[in-house]
């Protein structure tokens, strides 16, 4: 595998540590998908579930957008794969999805999220989470994203093993 994953620092500031854990999880998702064909990326875990590695990439692009772009930058940004507000399930339908497009969108949303975090003066930056109708801090968003990726990378472990037998981080 060629995706480079860098572990978090053993000592560092809160921000450096949060950033590093989030980057580790982003790289883990990419690593879990590396080297697979589009058909393999679309293999479903256990029908009727629509969960697949490609579905996770699309879902996490949507999550990056919802938690960074829509909270701190552009509240009116539409969902990527749904016309319905907060419909995160639409991303799981990969019937007509392209892996190339999904990864390009995910990488673009990740870069947008990184820019927001880099430009923030502090983790206390407040944004508005429209789904909750409440303000949240950048700190909370970063922690939420670490948990979101951690949960879905667990799914990715099982999905990848089912596709070609590859196990481990």
Summarize the structure.
Pfam families: MST. This protein is mainly alpha-helical and 169 residues long.
Structural summary, described in words:
This protein is mostly helical and 169 residues long. The protein has helices spanning 14-33, 38-41, 53-73, 99-119, 138-164; strands at residues 126-129, 134-137. The longest helix has 27 residues, at 138-164.
SSE inventory with pairings:
Blueprint: H1 14-33, H2 38-41, H3 53-73, H4 99-119, E1 126-129, E2 134-137, H5 138-164
Antiparallel strand pairs: 1-2
Average of pLDDT: 93
Structure class: mainly alpha
Q: Sum up the overall morphology in one term.
A: globular
Radius of gyration: 16 Å
Order of helices and strands: HHHHEEH
Topology, number of strands:
2
In angstroms, what separates the terminal alpha carbons? 11 Å
Query: Level of helix content?
Result: 55-70%
**Beta-sheet strand percentage?**
under 5%
Main features:
two-stranded antiparallel ribbon, 55% helix, DinB family protein, mainly alpha, 5 helices, MST-like, 169 residues, DinB/YfiT-like
